[in-house]
C-alpha cells in the first residue's frame, strides 16, 4: 500500500468516527431537551401523562341587594282649625233647620261665628282649643219632622262627648258613628228618645267609647256580642225591646256598671260572667224572661256590690259560691222560682244592706239568715218556710214541688271558689240601708228628666 492510500484511508476513518459521535450527541441532547420540557410542563400544570386537575369551583356572586323602599309618606297635616270650626258651624245651621220645636229656645243662640268665643252663643256646644268637642242636648225636648242625627253627629269630627237624652230623635241610630268619622268620641248618650230598629252596629266602630247609654228607646232584636268587647266603663241597655239570649261573651265586658233590665231576654245567665270579676261592680238583669239556674260563677264577682236578677223565671238553689260576694250590698232575686235552703254564708256577708228573696219557693233558712230577717235586711216573704209569717199557702208549695226540677250541673252549686271565713256572727254594716239610692245602675232605671 502506498503512503497516499494509507493517508486517505485514515482520513476516511476519522470522518466516520466523527460522524457517529455527532449522531449520538445530537440524540442525547434531543432526549434531554424533551425531558426538560416535560418537567417544566409538569411543574406549571401541563404535560406529562397525568390528566390536568379540575378547575376549582368558584362561589356564585351574591344576589344584588334589595332595592331600598322609599320612606313612608308623612301623615297629612291636620285640618286647619278655622276650617274645622267653619265646617262645624255649617253643620249646626243645617241641623237647626230640621228642628220644629225648641221649648228651651237655645237654637236662637245659634247665630254668627263666635261659637267658641262668646259663652252666650251656641248654647249646648262646648269648645276646647277652638274646636267643638262636646254637645249637650240633654232634656231639651227637641222635635222635628223628622228629627234625625244623620249627617249631624259625624259632621263634627272633633267631638269627644255627645249627650242628647230626652229628646224626640226618631228612626234608626245613624250608621256613621265610628272611629273613622269621629276618632275621639268617648261618651255617647242617646237615651230616652224614639229610636227603633236593631242594635246599632255603627256604635261598635267607635272603639274609644267609655260610656254608652241607649236606654229608654225601642231598639229590638239580639244584642250584638261585639259590644262586650268595647272598653266601656258604663253600658246601659235597659228599657228597650231587646230579645234573644244574652251573648255568651258577656264576661268579656270591661264595664263597671251594666244594665240589661226591662227587656225580653231569654235563656240562662252566661257562665262567662265570672270573667268580669276584676271590674264588674253593679249588674241588673231584672224583669226579663231568663230561665235556668244561677251559675256558680256569679260568686266570683268579688268586687260586685249590686246584683239584681229579680222578676225572671230562674230556678234551682242559690249556689254556695254566693258566700264569696264579700262586697255585696244589694242582692235581689225575688219573683223567681228558686227553692231549697238559703246559704248561711250569704247571710254572713257583712256588707249586706238588702237581701230580697220574696216570692220564691225557699223551704229553709238558718240562724244567720233569721238574724237578717229581724234586722229587716232579708225579705223572704211568700216562700215555703213553715215557721215564718207571710208565706205561701201549703197547697201552692205542694203543687210547685210536684214537678221535678233540676239544674244541669247540680255539683257546681256546692262549689266555693274562695276561702270563706266562718264568722261567728255578722258584723254590723256601716251603711244606713240606702244602697239602692247610691247605686249607679238603679239610677239608670229612671227616665232622664226633660
Q: What would you say this structure looks like, in words?
A:
This protein is α/β, with parallel strands linked by helices and about 450 residues long. It has a domain of about 220 residues: Ribonuclease Inhibitor (Leucine-rich repeat, LRR (right-handed beta-alpha superhelix)). About 20% of the residues lie in helices and about 15% in strands. It is built from 7 helices and 23 strands. A 12-stranded mixed beta sheet has the order 2-3-5-7-9-11-13-15-17-19-21-23. Strands 10-12-14-16 form a 4-stranded parallel beta sheet, with no helix packed on it. The N terminus is likely disordered. It is found in: Secreted.
Structural class: alpha/beta
Listing every helix as H and every strand as E from the N terminus to the C terminus, the arrangement reads: HHEEEEEEEEEEEEEEEEEEEEHEEHEHHH
CATH architecture of the domain at 222-438: Alpha-Beta Horseshoe
Tell me the strand percentage band: 15-25%
Spatial strand order of the main sheet: 2-3-5-7-9-11-13-15-17-19-21-23
CATH superfamily of the domain at 222-438: Ribonuclease Inhibitor
Uncertain residue ranges? 1-7, 23-50
Q: How confident overall, as mean pLDDT?
A: 87
> How much is the radius of gyration in Å?
47 Å
Number of strands: 23
Oligomer: single chain
What features would you highlight for this structure?
single chain, 450 residues, alpha/beta, twelve-stranded mixed beta sheet, four-stranded parallel beta sheet, 7 helices
Amino acid at each position: 500500500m502506498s503512503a497516499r492510500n494509507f493517508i486517505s484511508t485514515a482520513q476516511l476513518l476519522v470522518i466516520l468516527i466523527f460522524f457517529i459521535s455527532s449522531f449520538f450527541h445530537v440524540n442525547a441532547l434531543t432526549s434531554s431537551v424533551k425531558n426538560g420540557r416535560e418537567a417544566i410542563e409538569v411543574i406549571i400544570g401541563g404535560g406529562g401523562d397525568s390528566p390536568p386537575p379540575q378547575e376549582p369551583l368558584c362561589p356564585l356572586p351574591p344576589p344584588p341587594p334589595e332595592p331600598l323602599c322609599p320612606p313612608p309618606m308623612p301623615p297629612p297635616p291636620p285640618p286647619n282649625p278655622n276650617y274645622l270650626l267653619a265646617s262645624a258651624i255649617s253643620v249646626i245651621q243645617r241641623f237647626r233647620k230640621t228642628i220644629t220645636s225648641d221649648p228651651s229656645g237655645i237654637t236662637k243662640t245659634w247665630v254668627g261665628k263666635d261659637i267658641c268665643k262668646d259663652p252666650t252663643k251656641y248654647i249646648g256646644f262646648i269648645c276646647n282649643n277652638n274646636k267643638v268637642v262636646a254637645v249637650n242636648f240633654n232634656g231639651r225636648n227637641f222635635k222635628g219632622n223628622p228629627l234625625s242625627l244623620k249627617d249631624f253627629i259625624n259632621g263634627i269630627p272633633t267631638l269627644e262627648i255627645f249627650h242628647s237624652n230626652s229628646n224626640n230623635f226618631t228612626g234608626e241610630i245613624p250608621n256613621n258613628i265610628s272611629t273613622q268619622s269621629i276618632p275621639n268620641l268617648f261618651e255617647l248618650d242617646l237615651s230616652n228618645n224614639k229610636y227603633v230598629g236593631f242594635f246599632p252596629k255603627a256604635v261598635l266602630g267607635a272603639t274609644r267609647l267609655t260610656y254608652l247609654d241607649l236606654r229608654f228607646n225601642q231598639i229590638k232584636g239580639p244584642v250584638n256580642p261585639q259590644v262586650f268587647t268595647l272598653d266601656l266603663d258604663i253600658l246601659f241597655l235597659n228599657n228597650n225591646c231587646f230579645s234573644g239570649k244574652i251573648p255568651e261573651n258577656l264576661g268579656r265586658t270591661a264595664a263597671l256598671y251594666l244594665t240589661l233590665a226591662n227587656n225580653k231576654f231569654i235563656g240562662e245567665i252566661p257562665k262567662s260572667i265570672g270573667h268580669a270579676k276584676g271590674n264588674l261592680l253593679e249588674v241588673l238583669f231584672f224583669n226579663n224572661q231568663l230561665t235556668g239556674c244561677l251559675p256558680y260563677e256569679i260568686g266570683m264577682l268579688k268586687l260586685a256590690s249590686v246584683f239584681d236578677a229579680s222578676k225572671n223565671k230562674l230556678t234551682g238553689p242559690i249556689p254556695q259560691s254566693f258566700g264569696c260576694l264579700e262586697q255585696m250590698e244589694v242582692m235581689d232575686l225575688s219573683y223567681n222560682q228558686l227553692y231549697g235552703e238559703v246559704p248561711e254564708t250569704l247571710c254572713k256577708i257583712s256588707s249586706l244592706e238588702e237581701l230580697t228573696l220574696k216570692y220564691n219557693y225557699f223551704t229553709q233558712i238558718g240562724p244567720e239568715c233569721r238574724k237578717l230577717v229581724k234586722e229587716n235586711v232579708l225579705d223572704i216573704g211568700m216562700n215555703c218556710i213553715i215557721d215564718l209569717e207571710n208565706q205561701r199557702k201549703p197547697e201552692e208549695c205542694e203543687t210547685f214541688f210536684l214537678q221535678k226540677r233540676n239544674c244541669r250541673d247540680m255539683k257546681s252549686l256546692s262549689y266555693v271558689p274562695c276561702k270563706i271565713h266562718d264568722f261567728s256572727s255578722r258584723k254590723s254594716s256601716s251603711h244606713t240601708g240606702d244602697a239602692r239610692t247610691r247605686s249607679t245602675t238603679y239610677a239608670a232605671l229612671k227616665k232622664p228628666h226633660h
